[in-house]
């Protein structure tokens, strides 16, 4: 039986509140669970007590092979119970392929306009120089 330490949603509509539970991975999110280990209230300020976790019970379940989900692992890392590997995805902030193509076309058009303006500015100066001679 694969065990997960995960969040089970409680609370009303648009007022989320989560319980940190140990459950069989095959059971539904808000369904049957084995034990409640704590809670998370995302509506509280970040400097307050948003997350409450029973550290001894979490360590017990981790020693019995329970795998925390990513969000729960973040909480456990903050509490110093488990270590979470830092992820880095530098390409996440880059625009998509089509947006990059549009940006390249816009840049090329701006360069063409700038070159045309520069050529137009040089042409009258050359004409004045030719008439002055």
From TrEMBL:
Enumerate the Pfam families for this protein: Ribosomal_S16
Annotated family: Belongs to the bacterial ribosomal protein bS16 family.
Q: Which residues form the signal peptide?
A: none
Q: Which UniProt keywords apply?
A: Ribonucleoprotein, Ribosomal protein
The source's superkingdom equals Bacteria
Identification of the protein by name: Small ribosomal subunit protein bS16
What is this organism's lineage? Bacteria, Pseudomonadati, Pseudomonadota, Alphaproteobacteria, Hyphomicrobiales
**Molecular functions (GO terms):** structural constituent of ribosome
Annotated gene: rpsP
InterPro entries linked = Ribosomal_bS16, Ribosomal_bS16_dom_sf
The GO cellular component terms are:
cytoplasm; small ribosomal subunit
The answer to keyword Ribosomal protein applying to this record is: yes
User: Does the keyword DNA damage feature in the UniProt annotation?
Assistant: no
Cross-referenced Gene3D superfamilies: 3.30.1320.10
SUPFAM superfamilies attached to this UniProt entry: Ribosomal protein S16 (SSF54565)
GO aspect biological process, one term: translation
Matching entries from PANTHER family are given as: 30S RIBOSOMAL PROTEIN S16, SMALL RIBOSOMAL SUBUNIT PROTEIN BS16M
């Amino acid at each position: 039986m694969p065990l997960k330490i995960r969040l089970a949603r409680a609370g009303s509509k648009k007022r989320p509140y989560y319980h940190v539970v140990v459950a069989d991975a095959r059971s539904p999110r808000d369904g049957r669970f084995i034990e409640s280990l704590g809670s998370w209230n995302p509506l509280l300020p970040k400097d307050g007590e948003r997350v409450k976790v029973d550290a001894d019970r979490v360590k017990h379940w981790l020693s019995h092979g329970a795998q925390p989900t990513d969000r729960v692992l973040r909480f456990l890392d903050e509490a110093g119970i488990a270590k979470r590997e830092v992820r880095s995805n530098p390409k996440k902030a880059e625009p998509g392929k089509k947006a990059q193509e549009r940006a390249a076309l816009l840049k090329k058009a701006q360069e063409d306009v700038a070159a045309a303006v520069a050529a137009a500015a040089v042409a009258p100066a050359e004409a004045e120089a030719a008439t002055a001679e």
